[in-house]
Amino acid sequence: MAVFLAEPGGVPRHLLNYALARLLDIAADDGDSVRGGAVALGASEGVHVPQVHAFNVLRAAFQDKELSTETTFFAAQGLEVGASTRPLIRST
Prior knowledge:
Blueprint: H1 2-6, H2 14-28, H3 32-35, E1 43-44, E2 47-48, H4 49-63, H5 68-71, H6 75-84
Antiparallel strand pairs: 1-2
Helix pairs in contact: 2-4
């Protein structure tokens, strides 16, 4: 978050826009290749760990009041990805 907030205000935040687009791509990837046996860094017990981290960073970015104007453009895509993704937390 500090990196996003370090960009100067009043001008387009290119890093934020790039990062949000990339994080949404990662969040949309459900990691089926990892669960299917492919080796990937961060794979743990069938959970696609990069996807979990992407959702956590997206959540923080969407909740930050200083970034609210810039993240509004990505809100619809974020909702779509969140609604179409399998639950990442399994109750035991």
